[in-house]
Batch of 2 targets.
Target 1
Amino acid sequence: MKQITGGVTAAKGYKAAATAAGIKYQDRTDMAMVYSEVPATVAGTFTTNVFKAAPVIWDRNIVKKTGKAQAVVVNSGIANACTGEEGDLYCQKTADAAAEALGISADAVLLGSTGVIGMQLPVDKMQAGAKKLATLLDDSIEAGSAAAQAIMTTDTHKKEIAYELTIGGKTVTIGGMAKGSGMIHPNMCTMLAYVTTDAAISHEMLQKALSQIVVDTFNMISVDGDTSTNDTLLVLANGMAGNTEIVAEGSDYDQFYEALNAICTFLAKEMAADGEGATKLVESIVEGADTKENARILAKSVVCSSLTKAAMYGCDANWGRELCALGYSGVQFDPMKVEMYFKSGDTTMLIFKDGAGVDYSEEEAAKLLANDHVQIISKMNMGTESATAWGCDLTYDYVKINADYRS
Amino acid sequence: MKQITGGVTAAKGYKAAATAAGIKYQDRTDMAMVYSEVPATVAGTFTTNVFKAAPVIWDRNIVKKTGKAQAVVVNSGIANACTGEEGDLYCQKTADAAAEALGISADAVLLGSTGVIGMQLPVDKMQAGAKKLATLLDDSIEAGSAAAQAIMTTDTHKKEIAYELTIGGKTVTIGGMAKGSGMIHPNMCTMLAYVTTDAAISHEMLQKALSQIVVDTFNMISVDGDTSTNDTLLVLANGMAGNTEIVAEGSDYDQFYEALNAICTFLAKEMAADGEGATKLVESIVEGADTKENARILAKSVVCSSLTKAAMYGCDANWGRELCALGYSGVQFDPMKVEMYFKSGDTTMLIFKDGAGVDYSEEEAAKLLANDHVQIISKMNMGTESATAWGCDLTYDYVKINADYRS
């Protein structure tokens, strides 16, 4: 398995396009399309929020009913969430417009929206945008990047990645794109992430892989603790690599799983590192927990702590806050057994052991915490399970961005 | 029942004092004592954090074993949490010093600490402070206020209140003090809150009342989602009012309960309103939930949402965030039945109904949200249960305070 250039257009048979449809932003692209030359098997995971955005309900129906799709149409600026029946109607109209332009059925068109909750989409602009996008489709790397750029909201850079691997003697490619960067605390999935592959794999095995992978990737990141109404992760597999279809577990499935896991891990970490206002990626690694689920809960509790996040911004080794977050996570453990380390690059510092802080250099700790990727390692010494969660620091800019998001 | 001036010294037989012991701060009082002339029945609730501060463990033992105490010694600046065996030893030494000076037993001395986690207390200064405090004890209102002032950390003002009521023909007084204002997301209790009363009430009934009341008062506030290692709420009842001891439910108990509930509600709201960096109190009222527990979860989810809190700071009626927080709370409900209102003073605005936003004036909403006390009312229309949670906005100052808390 090797990383290659590109994103959603890296795999065989995929095209993409972006356009400035004027949905809400006036000075940038805000609508994207991803298209597969042939119908693709599709798997997805979606937000668990009771208020599910209209496009989430639309996509979920397609994934459940047919498990096949050929196009994805995404807009940024307006989330089409909490928009009532009008919002559902606008999904239908957008899918109809895309389907007509592409010569496919509307129920082969997946939809995604991200932005302000509660506003209605300008449906005429959505329809015009969908038609325009159909004429701009291109299989170049650049077209995939343009799509990754168009779906951003407060993100500071696009997020895409691709891998190439061999399955049953055939070259298989898998690539993806995603966007953050606020209202990020995925529960079953993340804001918007799209993965395309030319692998041949059954709907059941694709959904199985995705549902397992999401637990340790997108579900382990948090920017602000707010689980969005629009979280959507979709994987399209069009089979154009020509490998024997993966219909059961085995080495082919394992290889595909590894690549999909690498894609999802990368995109999830990127989303955490580019959290609204963030200056650094904070990685919480828990080792030696008694169960896997407890390891996940402990790791996530640390990256979700507002006080930890503010201290990380200030490069303050105020380790009591990280311990405090372990302590209120709901997981039971022996506080006397816990060891905590701060790590960045090749530097590791022991901070806490035997129920009390150890003698360490505050100056060196502050220097370590000033890096843009900081690891907090908690050894629980209660068992053998581990987990990793990713978050970011809490900064003035997070407040600034979210105090006047709509203006 | 009527509100009167004062706090912990309002009830008969209580004295208090404050001193600048130089624990960590150099320019302010940082140690307080509350003393009852006669042994008082004591009830308490404490943090559920696995890392319990040494004074929490100390107090819990006293409440469980004897249910009696005569003095409380509290310091600010250092939390004596995550301090190992040394921290436990310093509790013993502080209690010993206070006990000797007061001529009582060390197991009648309750302790409280708040401040930085992980630092060791300067035990000589604690001992000297405890001895000094014993000589300064005074039953004046001012002495109670001085104690409320000394226990503050990042609080901007002291929090105290007192009520007077009649039980069985006798005048009973109940007063309390508390401090916030960061690491506030109490689970079974809050940072530090102390209530004194001259009522005669058994340990069982006092603990029963307190344990019920915390669920809808201190456990319903959140400043930053971080449940402290030091949360302690103690009530001392010395019986000096001369009422027939309350040993069972009935009208005497109900009256006492009402007063204790009013004290705890006031102190909890004060703590939320004075959250670190806060500019306003945000009150989330949920009505028509199917169960009481679900009403509490829904109400609290709204005040805990970082995005809601940032929008409140910006006076932005970005109501999708409040709905989103209801939606990810874990409680199931019908999103089409929800109605949401913003309220402040006499102005109430309907914002959301029938699954979509209603036509309201953004200008009027922004004006409403600019007040220092804002209510978000969510009518679930799923049943008849209601609950209220209190929080505050998320501001630049919260980040500033917590990015360099230790410096």
Target 2
Amino acid sequence: MPSIPTLSDIQAAYKRIRPFVHETPVHTSQTINRITGSDIYFKCENFQKAGAFKYRGATNAIMALSAKEAGKGVATHSSGNHAAALALAAAIRGIKCYVVMPSSAPETKIKAVKNYGAEITFCEPTLESRESTLKQVVKRTGSVFIHPFDDFNVVCGQGTATLELLNHCSGTDIVMAPVGGGGLLGGTSIAAKSVRSEIIVYGAEPKNADDAYRSLKSGILQPPLKPNTIADGLLTALSELTFTIISKYTDDIFTVSEASIVEAMKLIWQLMKIIVEPSSAVPLAAIIENPEAFRGKKTGIILSGGNVDLSKLPF
Amino acid sequence: MPSIPTLSDIQAAYKRIRPFVHETPVHTSQTINRITGSDIYFKCENFQKAGAFKYRGATNAIMALSAKEAGKGVATHSSGNHAAALALAAAIRGIKCYVVMPSSAPETKIKAVKNYGAEITFCEPTLESRESTLKQVVKRTGSVFIHPFDDFNVVCGQGTATLELLNHCSGTDIVMAPVGGGGLLGGTSIAAKSVRSEIIVYGAEPKNADDAYRSLKSGILQPPLKPNTIADGLLTALSELTFTIISKYTDDIFTVSEASIVEAMKLIWQLMKIIVEPSSAVPLAAIIENPEAFRGKKTGIILSGGNVDLSKLPF
């Protein structure tokens, strides 16, 4: 059984990363509230440094390293947001960063990683290729591997967004986050349940990448089944660590259609005038598909990120 | 010579509209500052109600009406943002709103006006058709015409964004706003120069719709010359009122290319993760084209609005 972070671990992470992260704003939309019959608070991690919540976890993992551990730099594999976040956090600590990325990653995400000064090694877009290429990079450089989500300190960092959200919105009934590898949902659910046990925590996942839903329902960690969704941040499957956390702290996971994700994304863009990536729109899609579960409730949503390729929009 | 608002008129407007408008946030981007060598503060009127600064002027004009004046409603002609703003402000005061719009107006803007409950009469996309159609509407309904910019109270309302901006950013060297009909630049320049006379006020205008630039340079109000720009909020020409104000209070007007407008808009979308319409990007385009005028200076920019048709993006 992996060791699970507690609220005090997340609070310690917050103290550690606070000088380096944005305290992102919480936005609301009267029109979206009217459409959904709900009362929604959007925690804007699309405004976080490097454009996503991933910067919190990456910063916590990097700042927690001893000088000796950090000396040879850090490495990771990621389709995008974690890579950019780790690259920026490494640059701020002044250490090297090595990133293994699939050659199919969005151009904006590749560019961001390069701009932050990381060294990129491209691989095939399979988990196998990622992992074997990463092994070679770590062996060659002696760097420390920081996993995108299967990492105690990364999960703690991601949970800090919920500390800020709950601090801003008292009386929150429900907190919801998208779930891919489960780092965000894991940190979110520990933070929310530990701050106030009455808070209901939901995950939101594309139907076309529903391994977390199947894992939670079966009680056994399920493999992904050819995930194919516009929410490209949610393609990965849970790890043993995040599955253990989510099984313990998350009340349920909603799965949503691709059409609902695009509809929710369009509502956020048009009505809130903010840019979010498809993964961020998955929780609102869950509200649109299941309005009765949220009616009259105060729901906090983590808008996970805003890194989109503007030349490839779904509308 | 038309009567020009003073700082105390704008302060009175602010007191009047404050319960009804959002105090919009001021955003910054380290990357845009690095690219431009400047220090830019973006006043996010794209987050204003109805998605644009126009709501300030419309609200001030409507809330300043006596009960008797307001009784038969208000009317206007507008290609979009003023119409939506007036419709919402009228709905909040509980009075009727009649809008004359060119049938070529963007669908999102037509929809917004309808959603706020205004009655739309479509006209040809010419100033003549707008004005004659409006005359008929006013005659038929007995409503009060609220001009989009050639109106004392509207100019005062638009100036309130600058009061908030300067209150938020002390030591601002330059304030810049896009210029179409001149309501925003007029209110902005009175507010900025009156709060602190050392502040430099610039207008920013598309080269392809440069009537304000030509008017300021010649000292004589110039007609538009077939304006054709992606910045569809800036197609209109100054009025006698706004020309008089801008001549007195604005230091200079920069004109920019269409390519720069699209480049600036893309930078704002990609790096700041916010949605702005092309008109809003015109001041940043002026900085990109004239970096030396802004280098090392603290520049406040009014991001005028965020109402775009997502199916018709320039990238």
